[in-house]
Design goal:
Elements (H helix, E strand, L loop, with lengths): L8 H13 L2 H8 L3 H15 L4 E4 L2 E4 L1 H17 L2 H8 L6 E6 L1 H4 L2 H12 L4 E6 L2 H9 L5 E5 L7 E16 L9 E2 L1 H4 L4 E3 L5 H10 L8 E2 L3 H9 L4 E5 H5 L6 E6 L4 E9 L4 H20 L1 H4 L10
Parallel strand pairs: 3-4, 3-5, 7-11, 8-9, 8-10
Antiparallel strand pairs: 1-2, 5-12, 6-10, 6-11, 6-12
Helix pairs in contact: 1-2, 1-3, 1-4, 2-3, 4-8, 7-13
Length: 314
């Protein structure tokens, strides 16, 4: 069998541009090339892959199922690369300490901000940025040098980066405050069989499915979403109940939602990602932030079990 030629990054860049704009004309304008050049690049990529990537619908190009699968791998890379220009502009002429953080939503909207606040009290001239993305974006950003520190929930396969475990976040059940399940201190799979269950994305779903399986219950969410925080928002709007990480759930523990323990006990690792070889000055800044981040995790009510009883029982 003949070996497939290595795919050039430019062909994938053209594919990504067509996927985002929906037309060869839009992709050409985005990339600053001619429309025929875009069309030729697409044909070349399809020939190399041996698949069809788009179907024409009038002037628009509709991605095929195979194109969508390819985009799941290429999209995060080009999203991160798109931030390069802004990063360079911000760095030029700074001359002061800088820290670029990228985090998943449950951390980036909560304890990561608490840690950043404490760090900036200690380093008031710090130039800081914090972006929120999914796990794939977080890992890609660190690997490509587009961020100094990644914060994420879930497992990661190290590729030229350092992974430091921080904590283990338990999974919990988020329910509307007026729901009958609020009367229970602990909720298990058998209690959720008849409920409208909201799936919380590919990071959490396998853990929940495994917990259900251990109890002999099939995991069949009626509503699916890609993110724990979106699942929490759906619970808040009364669409159902969700099993999510406790750090996401705590952001929604209010007069409309309550958190309950999930049984059997299931945890999601909180981890930090650092590029393999930051210079000494940068590593000092990273270590200062990590110290504050660890303290924020430990002191978070959801993790320290110093809970607001009027909001939830865990």
């Amino acid at each position: 069998m003949a070996e497939r030629p290595q795919i050039k990054i430019r062909l994938l860049e053209v594919f990504d541009a067509v996927l985002r704009t929906g037309t060869t004309r839009g992709a050409a304008a985005h990339l600053g090339v001619s429309q025929p050049a875009v069309s030729q690049s697409l044909r070349t990529l399809e020939e190399q892959l041996g698949i069809s990537l788009f179907q024409r619908d009038g002037r628009s190009l509709i991605p095929t199922p195979m194109a969508r699968r390819l985009a799941a791998s290429t999209g995060p890379i080009f999203d991160v690369m798109g931030d390069l220009t802004g990063d360079v502009d911000r760095i030029v002429g700074m001359g002061t300490a800088e820290l670029r953080i990228i985090a998943t939503a449950s951390l980036g909207h909560g304890v990561a901000l608490v840690a950043l606040r404490e760090m900036m009290r200690e380093m008031p001239t710090l130039q800081a940025s914090l972006r929120v993305h999914d796990n794939a974006h977080v890992q890609a950003a660190i690997e490509l040098g587009q961020a100094d520190l990644g914060l994420m929930l879930g497992t990661v396969t190290p590729r030229n980066l350092t992974v430091l475990p921080i904590a283990r976040a338990p999974l919990v059940v988020l329910v509307p405050r007026d729901h009958a399940l609020v009367k229970r201190a602990m909720i298990g799979p058998a209690d959720l069989v008849t409920e409208t269950l909201i799936g919380a994305g590919k990071v959490i779903a396998p853990l929940v499915a495994g917990a259900f399986a251990r109890q002999g219950v099939a995991y069949r969410p009626q509503i699916e979403t890609g993110y724990a925080q979106t699942a929490c928002s759906m619970v808040q709007e009364g669409l159902g109940v969700a099993v999510v990480d406790v750090l996401s759930a705590e952001l929604f523990a209010n007069s409309r939602c309550s958190i309950r323990r999930f049984y059997p006990p299931t945890h999601l690792p909180a981890q930090t990602l650092i590029s393999a070889s930051p210079d000494e000055a940068k590593r000092a800044v990273i270590d200062t932030y990590l110290k504050a981040f660890r303290a924020a995790i430990e002191q978070a009510p959801a993790m320290a079990y110093q809970h607001r009883a009027d909001m939830y029982n865990i």
